[in-house]
Amino acid sequence: xxxxxxxxxxxxxxxxxxxxxxxxxxxxxxxxxxxxxxxxxxxxxxxxxxxxxxxxxxxxxxxxxxxxxxxxxxxxxxxxxxxxxxxxxxxxxxxxxxxxxxxxxxxxxxxxxxxxxxxxxxxxxxxxxxxxxxxxxxxxxxxxxxxxxxxxxxxxxxxxxxxxxxxxxxxxxxxxxxxxxxxxxxxxxxxxxxxxxxxxxxxx
Length: 204
Ligand SMILES: Nc1nc2c(ncn2[C@@H]2O[C@H](COP(=O)(O)OP(=O)(O)OP(=O)(O)O)[C@@H](O)[C@H]2O)c(=O)[nH]1
Fold this sequence. Notes:
Blueprint: E1 2-7, E2 24-25, E3 28-29, H1 30-38, E4 44-49, H2 54-60, E5 67-72, H3 80-89, E6 95-100, H4 108-121, E7 125-129, E8 139-143, H5 144-156, E9 171-175, H6 176-182, H7 194-201
Parallel strand pairs: 1-4, 1-6, 4-5, 7-9
Antiparallel strand pairs: 2-3, 6-8, 7-8
Helix pairs in contact: 3-5
The structure holds guanosine-5'-triphosphate.
Guanosine-5'-triphosphate (GTP) binds near residues 8, 73 and 79.
């Protein structure tokens, strides 16, 4: 069984006075676009968000073909890594892909490849690294229990850095060239501002 976690507990401050997770992108809430792209490669979906976001996200997920569960932040605004840990702790699969709610171009072929790399090599995480040097921790595959525990441990020692939990795990880096062979690099594009949102509309 493979799981997916969509993290959505951010405040969308660069977007303005609205939750970008449920903002309509070419007619469809952005989080639903992400979820729809994941449906072909996972068996269940977990949404991580705050309690005040739940009703709108639930409405956006109406009639989704897979089981959808919510993993709500007890402590809000603890950063993306806390959201990753909360979401992974609620998963039933041994491995889960984590995807940020603002990555509507997520490519199922890339996700499938990340699962294969993690599962075949038996590691705790497969994390893409682009040629610009950035680790794509918000579009990566994790062993659910190991990463959830590592996130808890990092938060307990006051470290909210997104790479902090990986320090105690065995993980592999998936480089840009390998991703490029298996799918579309647009998969990592994330939308933060109204302008980026407007520019992206015509691509659906
Ligand atoms: N659970 C949780 N998720 C978060 C938090 N901060 C960011 N995220 C998520 O992490 C991903 C990347 O975050 P950002 O692009 O910084 O999103 P954001 O914080 O909503 O946007 P800005 O306020 O404009 O930075 C998004 O999916 C967010 O929903 C947080 O404090 N808790």
